[in-house]
């Protein structure tokens, strides 16, 4: 969807956010850098800045009436029609147009993104005609993806291919087509709504953490400028014309200077030194840092890249590539970059010969051995404790293919389902059950083909002008398949009995392992914790598994065991999600020694009654029994049988065991029956 040009807030009037503005400008000077991801809080001007950037850029020359906005001077990147005319020495008519922001909506279909066949023209003329999509509009423009972390995976795959190759290849419904699709990729996201797929994250060359400005004076200036713009947009824009033109001329100058910019072999060695110290995967970071440093030098009016340019480039290239696991806290990037540069400078100098300092350090260490920890032991019966989680393990892929005839919506990377919209891959066709909203053109043509000769003999002269005659009985609708995540609802016992033998550490480690897998598979997770006299939904179903991890890390243990409260709240949370067609799995972790009632009856009987309701709803579940010792009541086993769940004892409470149980339970989900054609 191409955004309409209205009176746009001037780029030069945006207060602060210098790093975000620099990253955007560098990409329009040198689109080969590879795009920028703007991560940050809501209301920090990310979308405003992107739209202001397009309004700042100079006009570009394009081939008139070309849907791909081909550059008449760049013969190697012309579309098929323009290239054919150029080969035949036909003069390409040209005109100038403004660079625009082309937006990819989160709910866009694959047809809308890559383009599709023009059905009306095909029926009337019998010719295959390609109807361009968003990737065609984006050529030589800015492709803007708001909330990029919420984009469907199948669209991400197509988008990544086009961004990497600069060409959109279309193979669908008998159509084989390609066209140039070179664009500046700009994504924005709020991390609170879930993290981005690592495959897409690495494709963004640059990343900027955007935060609200904390200074009173700057915040007041933002308000003053915004109110002035809203009261009189024309006067405000006019006031900033000179500043806008200065930035525009600087961009044009940098674009001209960029091909002459050089980076020495020593500084190339510095780039590899920094990337090695950061242990980034692959070589995309090295290449992006090289291009970014050269562009920074050109933007500053220089042809020689400096050490400071490398440092500034590293601060844009490395932040989103630094973290190796989803739950690791980010480190101080700037400090690490400075340490790498210092190490590189030291390696260029002769090493010092004096080792006295090292010897003294060794002596100091030998004279001051570490003292054993001797913390005060808390009273488990009266004080709360916070246990550290065991190290999480990598979890093998869970699989739950729900290929029944129930149409579902959602997104993820785990369970195959039939899509209820135009999103997803076209896998088959069917007779329509009402008005056709997603026509399977190829299947419709196949159904109509045997009857063409007979229909031509009985139709009116006007109908005979059509190359192909289609009737309602020929129409076929597409069946689309997509993947969606599961909802894993953890119901965790945090009562005082869980502190025995540090069972909570093993529990936290196991849950973290499943959260790691959920992060990779884009599952939704939720968490109910019960302790003392009630249960609490500490994390409603969300895609942000990091919120679950942060709460789990600091979860205190202590108090009584209101098991019925926990099961009831877990059931309520799952039932709410069933209305959105999630595929739920409830995971109970407890010793079963319920001693707090919910409705005034026996606490254990109440827990069993709620477990029976969970089973009657067809909700898949797993029960982890943490009870241990000589006196064993077997209450969790009884609840598990009533709930119809998979049962595991405490000694099986390793992350791999729980993960295996979840895999087994999902694979034996009775709703996973295949479609019967």
Strand and helix layout:
Layout: H1 18-29, E1 36-40, H2 46-56, E2 60-63, H3 80-87, E3 94-97, E4 101-103, H4 110-114, E5 116-117, H5 119-125, E6 130-131, H6 134-137, E7 142-146, H7 153-165, E8 167-172, E9 175-180, E10 184-189, H8 198-201, E11 206-210, H9 216-231, H10 233-239, H11 241-257, H12 265-278, H13 284-299, H14 307-317, H15 333-347, H16 356-367, E12 385-386, E13 407-408, E14 415-419, E15 425-430, H17 441-448, H18 452-458, H19 461-464, E16 477-484, E17 486-493, H20 503-521, E18 524-531, E19 534-542, H21 545-553, E20 556-557, H22 563-578, E21 583-590, H23 603-616, E22 620-625, H24 635-643, E23 646-648, H25 655-667
Parallel strand pairs: 1-10, 1-11, 4-7, 7-10, 13-14, 17-18, 17-21, 21-22, 22-23
Antiparallel strand pairs: 2-3, 5-6, 8-9, 12-20, 14-16, 15-16, 18-19
Helix pairs in contact: 1-2, 9-10, 11-13, 12-13, 12-15, 13-14, 14-15, 20-21, 20-25, 22-23, 23-24
What can you see in these coordinates?
The structure is a single chain. Helix content is 40%, strand content 17%. The protein is built from 25 helices and 23 strands. The strands form seven sheets. Strands 19-18-17-21-22-23 form a six-stranded mixed sheet, sandwiched between helices. The relative contact order is 0.09.
Indicate the radius of gyration in whole angstroms: 31 Å
Distance between termini?
Answer: 37 Å
Largest beta sheet: strand ordering: 19-18-17-21-22-23
Helix content: 40-55%
Q: Could you give a short account of the major beta sheet? A: 6 strands, mixed
Number of helices: 25
Can you count the beta strands? 23
Mean pLDDT score: 77
Low-confidence stretches: 1-5, 361-382, 393-415, 670-677
Derived structural class: alpha/beta
Assess the beta-strand content as a share of residues. 15-25%
Overall geometry comes to: globular
């Amino acid at each position: 969807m191409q955004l309409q040009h209205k009176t746009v807030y001037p780029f030069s009037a945006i207060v602060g956010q210098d790093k975000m503005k620099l990253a955007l400008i560098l990409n329009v000077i040198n689109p080969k850098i590879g795009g920028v991801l703007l991560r940050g809080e809501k209301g920090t001007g990310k979308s405003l800045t992107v739209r202001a950037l397009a309004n700042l850029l100079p006009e570009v020359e394009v081939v008139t009436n070309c849907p791909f906005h081909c550059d008449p001077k760049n013969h190697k990147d012309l579309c098929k029609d323009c290239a054919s005319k150029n080969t035949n020495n036909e003069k390409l008519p040209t005109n100038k147009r403004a660079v625009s922001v082309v937006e990819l909506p989160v709910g866009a279909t694959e047809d809308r993104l890559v383009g599709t066949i023009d059905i009306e023209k095909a029926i009337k003329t019998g010719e295959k005609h390609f109807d361009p999509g968003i990737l065609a509009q984006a050529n030589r423009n800015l492709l803007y993806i708001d909330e990029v972390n919420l984009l469907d995976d199948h669209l991400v795959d197509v988008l990544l291919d086009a961004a990497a190759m600069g060409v959109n290849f279309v193979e669908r419904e008998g159509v084989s087509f390609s066209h140039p699709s070179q664009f500046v990729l700009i994504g924005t996201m709020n991390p609170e709504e879930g993290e981005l797929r690592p495959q897409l994250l690495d494709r963004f060359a640059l990343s900027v953490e955007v935060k609200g400005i904390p200074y009173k004076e700057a915040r007041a200036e933002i308000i003053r400028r915004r109110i002035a713009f809203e009261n009189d947009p024309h006067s405000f824009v006019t006031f900033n014309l000179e500043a806008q033109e200065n930035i525009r001329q600087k961009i044009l100058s940098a674009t001209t200077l960029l091909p002459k910019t050089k980076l020495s072999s020593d500084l190339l060695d510095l780039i590899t030194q920094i990337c090695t110290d950061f242990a980034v995967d692959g070589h995309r970071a090295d290449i992006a840092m090289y291009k970014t440093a050269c562009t920074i030098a050109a933007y500053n009016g220089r042809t020689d890249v400096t050490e400071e340019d490398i440092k500034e480039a590293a601060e844009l290239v490395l932040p989103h590539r630094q973290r190796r696991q989803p739950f690791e806290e980010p480190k101080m990037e700037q400090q690490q970059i400075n340490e790498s540069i210092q190490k590189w400078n030291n390696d260029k100098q002769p090493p010092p010969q004096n080792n006295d300092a090292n010897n003294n350090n060794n002596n100091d260490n030998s004279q001051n051995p570490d003292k054993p920890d001797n913390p005060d032991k808390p009273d488990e019966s009266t004080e709360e404790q916070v246990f550290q989680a065991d190290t999480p393990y990598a979890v093998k892929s869970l699989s739950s293919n729900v290929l029944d005839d129930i149409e579902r919506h959602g997104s993820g990377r785990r369970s195959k389902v039939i899509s209820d919209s135009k999103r997803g891959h076209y896998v088959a066709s069917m007779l329509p059950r009402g008005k056709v909203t997603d026509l399977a053109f190829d299947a419709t043509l196949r159904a109509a083909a045997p009857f063409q000769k007979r229909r031509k003999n009985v139709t009116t002269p006007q109908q005979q002008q059509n190359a192909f005659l289609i009737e309602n009985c020929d129409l076929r609708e597409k069946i689309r398949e997509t993947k969606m995540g599961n909802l894993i609802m953890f119901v965790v016992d945090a009562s005082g009995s869980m502190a025995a033998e540090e069972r909570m550490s093993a529990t936290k480690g196991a849950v973290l392992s499943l959260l790691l897998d959920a992060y990779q598979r884009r599952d939704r997770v939720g968490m109910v914790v019960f302790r003392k006299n009630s249960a609490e939904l500490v994390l409603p179903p969300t895609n942000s598994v990091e919120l679950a991890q942060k709460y789990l890390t600091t979860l205190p243990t202590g108090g009584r065991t209101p098991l019925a409260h926990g099961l009831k709240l877990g059931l309520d949370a799952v039932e709410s999600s069933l209305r959105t067609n999630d595929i739920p799995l409830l995971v109970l972790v407890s010793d079963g020694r319920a001693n707090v009632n919910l409705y005034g009856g026996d606490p254990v009987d109440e827990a069993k009654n709620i477990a029976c309701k969970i089973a009657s709803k067809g909700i898949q579940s797993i029960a982890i029994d943490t009870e241990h010792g000589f006196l064993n009541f077997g209450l969790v086993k009884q609840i598990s049988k009533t709930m119809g769940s998979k049962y595991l004892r405490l000694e099986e409470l390793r992350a791999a065991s729980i993960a295996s149980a979840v895999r087994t339970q999902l694979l034996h989900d009775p709703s996973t029956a295949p479609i019967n054609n």
